[in-house]
User: Which sequence fits this backbone?
């Protein structure tokens, strides 16, 4: 039997590669991010997904993301998610694009025997041809 540890809203975001205006494939994505916003007043967590994709429904991937930032209020993530300019020696000043929303929904984290599961259901996905 599973024990509910946490539930809340989940947001999927992506950051395009430098100089990519339109993203048509994962090759044009620099980073996939997930924000967990618990309903019970806990802190928001920003997760970085290591391989720019989530495991398939029948896959089990034990180490697919890590917690990059923990904040008390959503506004505190704006600095991390905004566009940034930075200097390079060979190409001059470059701009890292701001993150863009990909989907959102609800999630649960549940303990099952000696491990935990993150399960989610999307409520607002992009159309299938958008990414």
Assistant:
């Amino acid at each position: 039997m599973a024990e509910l540890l946490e539930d809340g809203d989940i947001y999927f975001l992506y950051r395009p590669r430098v100089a990519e205006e339109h993203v048509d494939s994962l090759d044009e994505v620099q980073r996939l991010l997930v924000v967990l916003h618990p309903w019970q007043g806990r802190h928001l967590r920003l997760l970085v997904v290591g391989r720019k994709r989530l495991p398939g429904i029948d896959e089990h991937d034990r180490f697919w993301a890590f917690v990059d930032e923990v904040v008390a209020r959503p506004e505190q993530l704006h600095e991390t998610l905004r566009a940034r300019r930075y200097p390079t020696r060979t190409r001059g000043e470059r701009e890292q694009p701001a993150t863009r929303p990909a989907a959102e929904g609800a999630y649960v984290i549940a303990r099952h025997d000696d491990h935990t599961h993150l399960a989610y259901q999307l409520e607002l996905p992009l159309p299938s041809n958008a990414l």
Q: What stands out?
A: The helical segments are 78-81. DSSP finds one helix and eight strands in the chain. The radius of gyration is 16 Å. Residues 58 and 119 are 12 Å apart (CA to CA).
